[in-house]
Amino acid sequence: MGLCVVLFFPTLAYLLLCTTPSAADILYPYGASYDTPTSKVDDGSTLITLSTSIKLFGNVSTLMHVNNNGLLSFSSGISAYTPTHLPVTDGNPFLAPFWADVNNALAGDIFYRQSNNDTSLLSRAATDIRTYFGLQTFSATWVFVATWSNVAFFGSSSSSTTVNTFQAVLISNGSFTFVMFNYGNILWTTGRGSGGDIKGTGGKPALAGVNSGLNTGYYEIPTSLTADIINITSTTNVNVNGRWVIRVDKLHPRDVNGVIALKGNKDIK
Ligand SMILES: *[C@@H]1O[C@H](CO)[C@@H](O)[C@H](O)[C@H]1NC(C)=O
Ligand SMILES: *[C@@H]1O[C@H](CO)[C@@H](O)[C@H](O)[C@H]1NC(C)=O
Ligand SMILES: *[C@@H]1O[C@H](CO)[C@@H](O)[C@H](O)[C@H]1NC(C)=O
Ligand SMILES: *[C@@H]1O[C@H](CO)[C@@H](O)[C@H](O)[C@H]1NC(C)=O
Q: Ligand 3 pocket, 185 CB below 6 A?
């Protein structure tokens, strides 16, 4: 949504200034004043105990790992820095806004928080889910926000400004679970250990998607593992560029129309 500002001048003339939607509008609030930072280490993971259990791919989860390389995982931490096509069938479910070789020891911060009582956060999440999924009575009881803020790629120079900002927001009402991926700014796709060049492109580019850990029950966002994923800020399944939202409580992830995203299909529009 754009922001409008009305400026009044002594002459009583006024000027109406409107902006087009910006990266800042896509991202839920984040940063040092809201969140806990993770440690700045290459390929690191942080284990979090959820304040409530959530339904995920047909099971119940109470633990989550925030992995520096752009994924949330639920059985164990993930240090793998080169993404692969889904499904990954090792029994470790994950939600990956942008799986690639982050090195925030060079630049950037990874933040997280969870809440069951921040009313503005819960109501923003509920409004988004009601709008996108047509669930007029949905109300969120728990929201988790992880943000990769201005993170550098492995092998970039320490003064590089080629950094990415993206977010994963998990939203639950106790039985339905949704994941929202928000892309603020994507300037690189590949670390140098994954065949990437000094600009952070080429090689094996990033993957975005959700993976149950079984050989069915997963969804890859189109352009994953191609150079075009650099433009994920201009793609969406909810008519808001730079945002993807997928329902993930059942084994098969579902799109906004309730269509099951099965192996290899492209049902999520
Ligand atoms: C929300 O919950 C947290 C964690 O239990 C608590 O520290 C905080 O005071 C609560 N805030 C409000 C506004 O109730
Ligand atoms: C969660 O939301 C869905 C859709 O609005 C609703 O059908 C379901 O009953 C809700 N679950 C709980 C535990 O409130
Ligand atoms: C859910 O849990 C059952 C029992 O532990 C397990 O067999 C199954 O593979 C799990 N499903 C997923 C998607 O991990
Ligand atoms: C990304 O989008 C820009 C602007 O439309 C385009 O010029 C560029 O070729 C695209 N890059 C890739 C790798 O698709």
A: no
